[in-house]
Design brief:
Elements lengths: L2 E2 L4 H31 L5 H28 L9 E3 H12 L4 E6 L4 E3 H16 L5 E8 L6 E7 L9 H5 L2 E2 L9 H12 L4 E6 L2 E6 L1
Parallel strand pairs: 3-5
Antiparallel strand pairs: 1-7, 2-4, 5-6, 6-9, 8-9
Helix pairs in contact: 1-2, 2-3, 3-4, 4-6
Length: about 210
């Protein structure tokens, strides 16, 4: 049995801030470690080269995560603002694509209401969690124009529906509470309902599909 989650605005803001901080701890910590290595007088050239490479990679990761979170969780302008899907694509690629994961983007480049673009990015986070060993995320449009919805197919080794996410998308949890780890799919559900959409999450053979309708 699941119970509806009751969360006031202050707690929602605090949990989302905790989520963003969690995403940034790893790359910023790596930057600090790299700088400490460079400050050591007995570091050889090979070690310094490694430290510089670590700093560059970690700074790039931190920047990509900040840009993504700014749109996925942030205000992104006025309530009636629109987001260029080309910009959303660039942010998603910067966060999600790596040696193991490929993003196949089949959406038209047009302006979309802010909350729908935010919903898309949040659903991509969930889809990425469905392929823990990497794979392919394919994004397609459902409908068109300002009422556009989305279908995301996640395929890869051991693809699976993330535990508890379906109920969180619907605004519930096993005990009626939510923590910083689970706030993101809960927030995605809030965005979907604000857009007048419902989100389904299911396995279709070896592929995990997230769709709005």
């Amino acid at each position: 049995m699941s119970a509806a989650i009751s969360l006031d605005a202050l707690d929602l803001a605090a949990l989302l801030c905790s989520r963003v901080c969690h995403d940034l701890i790893s790359p910023t910590g790596a930057i600090v470690n790299g700088l400490e290595v460079l400050e050591e007088e007995d570091s050889d050239e090979e070690t310094k080269t490694f430290a510089l490479d670590l700093i560059k990679r970690s700074a790039k990761t931190a920047s990509a995560r900040l840009q993504f979170c700014r749109l996925a969780f942030g205000a992104a302008g006025a309530a009636t603002a629109k987001v260029d899907l080309g910009d959303a694509q660039a942010m998603a690629q910067g966060l999600l694509e790596d040696d193991k994961t490929k993003l196949v983007w089949k959406l038209p480049r047009e302006l979309l209401p802010k909350n729908r673009a935010k919903l898309l990015l949040n659903l991509l986070i969930i889809a990425n969690q469905a392929i823990p060993r990497g794979g392919t995320l394919t994004v397609e449009a459902v409908g068109e124009g300002e009422k556009m919805g989305f279908r995301i197919a996640a395929s890869g080794p051991n693809a699976r529906v993330p535990h508890g996410v379906q109920t969180l998308l619907q605004g519930s949890s096993e005990n009626g509470s939510v923590d910083a780890h689970a706030i993101q799919p809960f927030y995605a559900g809030l965005l979907a309902r604000a857009c007048g959409l419902e989100v389904s999450l299911k396995a279709e053979g070896d592929v995990i599909v997230i769709a709005t309708g």
